Prior knowledge:
Shape: globular
Number of strands: 2
Strand content: under 5%
Amino acid sequence: MEKALAPPRKQWLDALRGLAIFLVVLLHNLPVGEEKYFYILLTGPIKLPLFFAISGYVFNPREGKQGIFFLNVLRKILIPSLVLFIGLHAPSVLTRGFSYLLYRLRDFFTGDVCWYITACILGEILFFYNLKFCKKEWQICLTAGICCVLGFVMAAFGFGDFAMLNRAFIAQAFLLMGYLFRRHEEFFKKLHWSVLLVGFLLVAVLITAGYFLFPNRGIDVHMNNYYGSLWTVPFSFLLIALFNLSLMTLGAKLGRISKILSLVGQHTLITYIWHGFFLSIGMRVLPLGDSTGILLIGKCLLLTAFSIGMCTLGGVIINWVFPELMGRKRKKKEKV
């Protein structure tokens, strides 16, 4: 008997992942200055919230079965992340000693480095129990909202920075956004193009308003900065929701966005962990120096393309040679 084929990957979803990781890597090689401020202002609402929203979109509660869920978190996120992280820092043991690797592993688990991974794992665990115990959509929304508020309360009192716990609570709003989009995807896909255009125009208006109302501030999910104060959080979340839902609607309506971005999006884990290494190599060949304006942006774009290209190539090779390492199943040849 022939086995049913697994559903094909959604190319537009991988492309949005690729876009998100591109924005993250570009941010990491932009030096502090006016260019970086404007970049954060424009991309802050979608860089990391989009990652969380995509996680919410593809979230599989495993019918509430805890063992299967935690096994998948271990197999698909934690173990691949640890292997990639150790592989990146293991060569330094020869010059810095084994204690260096232990310190780096400590930073990994506390969220001091690769913070998104710890926040994502804890966030998915919280979301799993939300879906496990809340059966109705309004209950899921209410619980996610309460968790988000608790996250801000924890952050305000300096609690939950360890392992990015307060970020994981706040991220419930972003996970919920992707989850609801998946449940009502047909509604979003049927929206007229004019509605989508209005959505992007409103995003532009809100970003412009943020520039004038809250100067020298922006949205930085990592630093829990949403235009600088708790009073600006509703404004920030309106912008985040509108921007991300508009992007996801565009992707769902188009179906296909970019094969290159899609390929990049399939290897975001290795890119997230290894991109700094390749950026450092690229900067030796193409130093930023005192560059400003268009020249600076051009150099940063080239460095970003180089780093992402090398990481994606590495991901392709790993998935070809040892896909289990990245939590993926080896493809079996179909029987004729």
